[in-house]
Amino acid sequence: MGNLNDKEENKENIVNNNQANQEIKLNEQSSNEASPDLTFKKVNVNAKNRLKKSHGFLKTILFLIMIIIVIYCIFFARNCIILTDLSNKIKILDKKVNYSYTSIAKMSEEEDTTIINYARKDNKELFEIKIGENIISMWEDIANNKRITMFPTEKIARITSKGEMGVNLPVMKELKDKSVRSLMSIASRIYSEKYEGKDCYVITIGNAQKVWIEKQTALVQKREYETYTVEYVNIKIDNNSKIDTPDLTGYVVNEE
User: Fold this and answer.
1) Based on C-alpha coordinates, what's the Rg of the chain?
2) Pick from 174, 199, 201, 180: which is nearest to 78 by CA?
3) pLDDT digits (tens, 9 = 90+) for 60-85
4) Of the candidates 195, 111, 39, which has an alpha carbon nearest to the alpha carbon of residue 210?
5) Which residue of 59, 76, 210, 214 pairs with 224 in a disulfide if CB–CB is 3.0 to 4.6 A?
């Protein structure tokens, strides 16, 4: 009897062990079958996270580009308004026929300063240029097509028939051209600054030129080029005294 019982117990143990082994195999199979799904889910989540990050980066770039475009549009519109206003004032100045001013051109320290005095009134013009000790003066009667050129140091004068000298008030004539204004609105830097007590716009055109223009009148006060500077002083409009015919006493006069 004892042996039979032992045999039955052994059989039960074998059956139980077989069932346990089968359950383990089934669990391993189910875990192996489930793992690809879990791996796919993890990969999918990582891809979504990377996509969100790239979308966020692109949104930031687009936002910065939009800000730059808006700032540039404001910059362009501001320059257009300023240059158009100056252009309108220049057109008014073009009608003036009574004015005078002095320009002072400064080159290098080794070269002499060039001083030009110019006056116009009642169809008469007077132009004097001084470079160091050398002086040349020109008087012109526009209506009668007559010009007198004088060399005071040599006491020589020459009378000729010439047209008007066409010396205008110191303005930026190029601003009257709409296409030029558009280009300058894009390429120029414009800011405000006091110059000789006057409120001015400073227009910087690359490295080639820098111009100080009085806001109220659009008259150029100063120009800076790469190699020299020109200042405009004593500008007077509509208040010049009479321009008389030059006294040629003591001059050797040549007529053409």
Assistant:
1) 45
2) 201
3) 788 788 888 888 788 888 999 999 99
4) 195
5) 210
